[in-house]
Amino acid sequence: MNKKKAKVIYRNVGLGLTALCFVLSYFYRPYAYSHHLNDFHLADCYTSFFGVPIIVCLTQAFYKEEGEKWSIPRNIIYAVLMLFVWELVDGLLAKRMDWLDIIASVISGCLMYVVCRIFGFKNIGEYKE
Q1: pLDDT tens digit sequence for 40-60
Q2: pTM score, whole prediction
Q3: Cα distance between residue 73 and residue 76, in whole Å
């Protein structure tokens, strides 16, 4: 597989997951709240859960040849840290911190790492032209 094909795949997965988050926020979240569904906080945490794969896929898709090599494990760590800082800032501004979002992003990062190790996904810098 070459870099261009890998970038297209990462971009499509990242944009697809972003679109899924928008669809869930307009349809599923209001439905779950209005019907008082016990969905194990899925309606609250899906953005943090999908946030890590979105960030990783989009940064791999828009990787440039110059500069630092963005490995997928490092990228996962940066994504989880970025979402953690986002929750801290939101907690400071809104005076409430949502620990479930932090837990969801950590679980998502761990699952993303396991999936990448099992299926052997490579960072863009390792694909040959």
Answers
A1: 778 888 999 999 999 999 998
A2: 0.87
A3: 5
